[in-house]
Amino acid sequence: SDKTDRQLGVAMWVIDVLALRVGGEKGEDEADTVGCCSLRLEHLHFNSTAGSYEIELEFLGKDSMVFKQNINFAKIEHPSGDVGKEVYNCLKTFVSGKKDSDQVFDTLDPSSLNKHLSSLMKGLSAKVFRTFNASITLEKELPGEEELKGKTIAEKVTLYNDANRLVAILCNHQKTV
Question: Are residues 73 and 59 in contact, defined by beta-carbon separation less than 8 angstroms?
Fold first, then answer.
């Protein structure tokens, strides 16, 4: 359906751009952790200022890591173009008339999303998006050959750790930043 297609498109964009996990990976003994497909209305706080495209996202991610970011969808630069405002408007539509405990993406689950992704390209999954984004971020942040000239091993390790920390932030992997 059209609704499912829109939710698929928005979910893929959110996973790609915001580096969210697909969701639904929690084990039986783990806390109520959330990813893209398991976002509920209570996790999205829309800025009520007219003309604002900001949403504060707050939820418990994998390993009980708090994800809390204020995202301005109008200012997100992405190779897919300036679709942040459209994504914001779709999210507003998806939550319209729902209760706090209702799913934002009510037509999706992790397996249907990953099945769709693998139909586009063999082996493509939500996890591949995260891995790709982490790799690209690390590559961009690592110093080049010129910058490394004359540096000690300890200085090089520090530069690597700084780059790796940015990847951890992108992927919401660390308890303290």
Answer: no
